[in-house]
Specification:
CATH class: Mainly Alpha
Shape: flat
Helix content: over 70%
Number of domains: 1
Order of helices and strands: HHHHHHHHHH
CATH topology: MetI-like fold
Distance between the termini: 46 Å
Largest sheet: none
CATH architecture: Orthogonal Bundle
Strand content: under 5%
CATH superfamily: MetI-like
Radius of gyration: 21 Å
Structural class: mainly alpha
Length: 242
């Protein structure tokens, strides 16, 4: 562990400072992408449960594309290809963004849409696991479609799918490591830089492995706490686990 407190090549920071900076970008990217992915996944998942219509078909198209294309390929597409496809002025603006933002925003969009497609299927499954009488009862009480989903279906569906959401919440922080391929200096890229400068690969990646493990455990405990807080004795969540 003495490696962490050695002076980095810039002569100002230590390798511990480098790791803190990398951790900051990993957490920023992970949390931001999770918020966007949860929003996108909720909307797309609800749309997937509609029988017909424009939104149902659009959501299905989105899920099938983003869920089935490898994350690394999507990362490259957002960083290298999309700036060439948008209008020229917008493309130049994207390319001229200073680092690390030029890498952060494509990584954010990529992770959000990729994870959102996975969450959409989980939300859809949670809604479809509910009794059909839920929708019929809400319609009888005068709820419109939007109100039915907001107040009746989605709150119950989320109680059912919290265990699967836990897995996605943990995974999104691990997937941030893919952003190193487009130049974002997050945790894994920081470990690679330390290894290249010191040739102490085991120590560099060993420390980063422990950090990722700690993040995953904290995420798991957080989601478990949310699951316990939202659990209703005898409710749909307990039925799903029975």
């Amino acid at each position: 562990m003495s490696l962490l407190f050695e002076t980095a090549p810039d002569g100002i920071h230590t390798y511990f400072d480098w790791l803190l900076q990398g951790l900051g970008w990993t957490l920023s990217l992970g949390f931001s992408a999770w918020i966007l992915a949860l929003t996108i996944g909720t909307l797309a998942g609800a749309a997937r449960t509609l029988k017909t219509g424009f939104w149902a078909k659009t959501a299905q198209f989105y899920v099938e594309i983003f869920r089935n294309v490898p994350l690394l390929v999507q990362m490259f597409l957002w960083f290298f290809v999309v700036p060439e496809l948008v209008p020229e002025a917008l493309g130049r603006a994207i390319k001229s963004m200073p680092p690390p933002w030029a890498s952060f925003f494509p990584a954010l969009l990529c992770l959000s849409l990729y994870t959102g497609a996975r969450l959409a299927e989980q939300v859809r499954a949670g809604i479809e696991a509910l009794a059909r009488g839920q929708s019929q009862a809400s319609a009888a009480l005068g709820f419109e479609t939007g109100g039915t989903y907001r107040y009746i279906l989605l709150p119950q569906a989320f109680r059912i799918i919290i265990p699967t959401l836990t897995n996605e919440f943990m995974t999104i922080f691990k997937n941030t490591s893919v952003a190193l391929t487009i130049g974002l200096i997050e945790l894994t890229a920081t470990a690679q830089a330390i290894s290249e400068n010191t040739f102490r690969t085991f120590e560099a990646f060993g420390v980063v492995t422990l950090i990722y493990l700690t993040i995953a455990l904290i995420a798991w405990r957080t989601m478990r706490g949310i699951e316990r807080a939202l659990r209703l004795p005898g409710g749909s969540g307990d039925e799903a686990r029975a």
